[in-house]
Design brief:
- This protein folds into three domains: 8-68 and 160-324, Alpha-Beta Barrel (TIM Barrel); 71-150, PK beta-barrel domain-like (M1 Pyruvate Kinase, Domain 3, Beta Barrel); 340-463, Pyruvate Kinase, Chain: A, domain 1 (3-Layer(aba) Sandwich), CATH 3.40.1380.20.
- The protein starts with 7 loop residues before the first strand and ends with a helix.
- An eight-stranded parallel β-barrel has the order 1-2-3-13-14-15-16-17, surrounded by nine helices. A seven-stranded mixed β-barrel has the order 4-7-6-10-9-8-12. It has a five-stranded mixed sheet with strand order 20-19-18-21-22, with helices on both faces.
- The chain is elongated and about 80 Å long.
- The protein has 464 residues and is α/β, with parallel strands linked by helices.
- The protein has 16 helices and 22 strands.
Length: 464
């Protein structure tokens, strides 16, 4: 499909999408980034999916989503029905449901609420007998292996990084993943610990905001992260459900102001796990996330275990396209890491697209910050990012409205590099000879590192 939305689609890969033909069709219909959830994957799975994705297209970005410090049900071999009462325990010898958090019984009191499977099952603690937590079932349901356990409004003690997370991140580095997505980020120290682990790796960090601690420290987390994911599943369990839409809009605005990509995730087309069409409410949810200004939208169970992974991607792209068709340039203020001069140039380039009939903006920069500084204003014209780093090409995939191009060796001379870039984009059918374009490049002054030149030209003038 050539008619792809500016808003990028992240699809989670699982049993429903392991087939190569299914993955190809998902990519054709709009999947530009593939997420692998480490909660359900080992090294062999990370390797197998990465190899398959690269076989389909080297342009698809790979995201490893860490398991994090989430409490989960463990040692449950098959699904069970939960009704009337349930015993939860961290004692391996107990007959109750085992969990991954040791000594939970020491932190709880009678009357505490426990939520299983993202809140689909609700329990109330009625007794604590040694390591066994006896619960009354307030809302029953089917409990499947490895599902989540939440205790709202309680700050439990977790390590900054689990051993599994360290191992998974190490594997992602070996396999050349493009992003690591950190679950349950509480403050900037969680992000800095991963940066230290990554050392000089070029992998970018996406911080997931999904609890009150992350919300409380959002400003400092945003500052040290490369991107943000609004993980509405646990966020809607850890905070009041009615707060989530407001929090979503607020975080999207803050990310845009900082020029950093933001992903909206969880249950966007949840009904398509079973059905061939989304509900009207889900269509509105996706459209509103697009109009809020999200860079990307994520499909979770819809593409990993659902019955209709290809159709889910197709519908998400269709909804995003329709929402984008009524959107206009949306200038935003605040400084990004690109610097004051580059921010001013980027903003004015976006304004000029309305006044000078400019067809596109081309960014020749190795700096993701410059690309973010442009795209945060959400211009209606395409933004082309050109780089000699294939890693940058795949990481710029995450930015809204950005199309990426790779040139193995960009010339050192600015004029030659511009000619290379325009010719490459033109050859791919993205430009017409009569098109007027805005080009943002670095300064031609020796040792000047800021991106400080904005040039308006026609394609024909460059290619002649």
């Amino acid at each position: 499909m050539n008619n792809l939305a500016k808003t990028k689609i992240v699809a989670t890969i699982g049993p429903s999408s392991w087939d190569e033909t299914v993955l190809r069709n998902m990519h054709r219909n709009g999947m530009q980034l593939a997420r692998i959830n480490a909660s359900f994957a080992d090294f062999e799975e990370l390797d197998r999916v990465a190899s398959l994705i690269r076989k389909i297209s080297p342009r698809i970005s790979l995201i490893l989503d860490t398991q994090g410090t989430k409490i989960r049900v463990k040692a449950l071999e098959k699904e069970i029905e939960v009704k009337d009462s349930l015993v939860i325990s961290s004692n391996e010898q107990s007959q109750g449901i085992k969990i991954t958090y040791p000594n939970l019984h020491k932190h709880l009191n009678i009357g505490n609420q426990i939520l299983l499977d993202d809140g689909n099952i609700e329990l109330k603690v009625t007794a604590i007998e040694g390591e066994d937590i006896v619960c009354e079932v307030i809302q029953g349901g089917i409990l499947k292996p490895n599902k989540t356990v939440n205790i709202p409004s309680m700050n439990l003690v977790f390590p900054t990084l689990t051993e599994k997370d360290k191992e998974d991140i190490g594997n992602a580095m070996k396999l050349g993943y493009d992003f690591v997505c950190l679950s349950f980020v509480r403050d900037k120290n969680d992000v800095l610990a991963v940066k230290e682990l990554l050392e000089d790796s070029s992998i970018k960090i996406i911080s997931k905001i999904e609890n009150q601690l992350g919300l409380d420290s959002f400003d400092e987390i945003l500052k040290v992260s490369d991107a943000i994911m609004i993980a509405r599943g646990d966020l809607g369990v850890e905070t009041p459900l009615e707060d989530v839409p407001i929090l979503q809009k607020r975080m999207i605005y803050q990310c845009r102001a900082a020029g950093k990509p933001v992903i909206v995730a969880t249950q966007m087309l949840e009904s398509m796990r079973e059905t061939i069409r989304p509900t009207r409410a889900e269509v509105s949810d996706v459209a509103n996330a697009v109009m809020d200004g999200a860079d990307a939208l994520m499909l979770s169970a819809e593409t990993s275990t659902g019955k209709n992974p290809v159709q889910a991607v197709e519908y998400m792209n269709r909804i995003a396209l329709k929402a984008e068709s009524v959107m206009q340039l949306s200038p935003i203020y605040g400084n990004t890491e690109a610097g004051i001069e580059s921010d001013a140039i980027a903003k004015n380039a976006c304004f000029l697209t309305q006044n000078l009939d400019i067809n596109s903006i081309i960014v020749l920069s190795e700096s993701s910050a410059t690309v973010g500084s442009v795209t945060r204003h959400r211009p209606n014209v395409p933004i082309y990012s050109v780089s000699s780093s294939i890693k940058k090409v795949k990481q710029h995939n995450l930015y809204k409205g950005v199309k990426t191009f790779y040139i193995e060796q960009l010339a050192d001379d600015r004029d030659q590099a511009i000619a290379q870039a325009v010719e490459t984009i033109y050859t791919h059918g993205e430009l017409d000879l009569r098109d007027k374009i805005a080009i943002i490049t670095g300064s031609s002054i020796k040792d000047c590192t800021s991106d400080s030149i904005l040039e308006i030209v026609t394609v024909k003038d460059i290619l002649d």
